[in-house]
């Protein structure tokens, strides 16, 4: 089952709850059977184009919402679509994200970099999608190692100061929570960067980034395994209140 299908099902469930529809009442409104509506809402079957249109009419989807949901639908039913349209899927999922936890053992995630730091790492100017704003209602926790913050070692002093100042600003944000990990810690060395995401309806998935390829995991066992890693990291991380002291050590 693709993450895109789960996300689409979560949209239908959330909209039904918002309007106070039951499976039976939504079935009567759309002309589907209650069983079909239930399976669509639980992500147990692909939603057809006709059914998507019927849900859209029932929920009054228009404009940006209609376009976003349609992109999710396309990627959920087109086999390799989740690879071909990965950026669109991730953008749609981001719009429905309530909480995410990022583990960055090697380098700072793009959203935590200043323009100078980003350009030094990638040789490219910061893209708009890399600098998307921290949206209201979304909370992000980021676990950082000293290697992630201080690399590359050739970072000029003024850019290093600028980067630290930016991290300090983020640490004071109500939407961002930075957690700092010790330099040597079992389970972090060699660990792939990953992100555990919770959507607005509490659906969770894991996003892995490896050699420029993004993989989305929605299997409950996989999600539990990565959440156990987070529990361990939380037990050894420097408290958020001590971020100033942690940064001052560099």
From TrEMBL:
Domain of life: Bacteria
Listed InterPro entries: DUF5753 (IPR043917), Lambda_DNA-bd_dom_sf (IPR010982)
Gene Ontology terms, MF aspect: DNA binding
Domain DUF5753: 124-249
Entries under Pfam families matching the protein: DUF5753
Protein name as catalogued: DUF5753 domain-containing protein
Organism: Actinokineospora spheciospongiae
